[in-house]
Amino acid sequence: QVQLVESGGGLVQAGDSLRLSCVASGRTFGSYIMGWIRQAPGKEREFVAAISQSGLNTYYAEPLKGRFTISRDNAKNMVYLQMNSLKPEDTAVYYCARDLLPGRILRGAMRGTDFGSWGQGTQVTVSS
Fold first, then answer.
1. How many angstroms separate the CA atoms of 4 and 83, rounded?
2. Which of 1, 49, 101, 102 has a CA-to-CA distance to 55 between 20 and 30 Å?
3. Average pLDDT in the 43-63 region?
4. Per residue in 85-127, pLDDT tens?
């Protein structure tokens, strides 16, 4: 069973930047699409971004395009989420997640049910 551990969350002011990191255990990291999902208090889980196995293809939730960037380093089993120009509405718990199956093609935004493994989450709070 893979373990995903997020880090990098915190309390920031509107307009600031944060970089979230997620490290995965195991030796099959490079075979899976990875993603970030967030959940704000009282709201449904929301797709943030996903990245293909090679890192060449990425997808973002439309409202986040241009502010968030997902990347990965397969040599280190790491996936990152760079968040710029943060807004109070970005406040949420951010989860790193691994695709349900290896080798799938990243075709677009992903649902929570597309992911089979999740981290424990890291809190991001943006004050106005």
1. 19
2. 1
3. 97
4. 999 999 999 999 999 999 999 999 999 899 999 999 999 999 9
Which 8-state DSSP code applies to residue 46?
E
At position 125, the amino acid (one-letter code) is T
Whole-angstrom Cα distance, residue 125 to residue 87? 9
Residues 6+ apart with CB under 8 A from 65: none
Cα–Cα dist 7/56, whole Å: 23
- Cβ-contact 86, 15 below 8 angstroms: yes
Q: Is 39 helix (H, G, I), strand (E, B) or coil?
A: strand
CA angle (38 as vertex; 32, 122 as ends), nearest 5:
90
Taking the C-alpha atoms of residue 95 and residue 105, their distance in angstroms, rounded to an integer, is: 21
> How many residues in the chain?
128
> Cα–Cα–Cα angle for 61, 40, 115, nearest 5°?
55
CB of 88 closer than 8 Å to CB of 126: yes
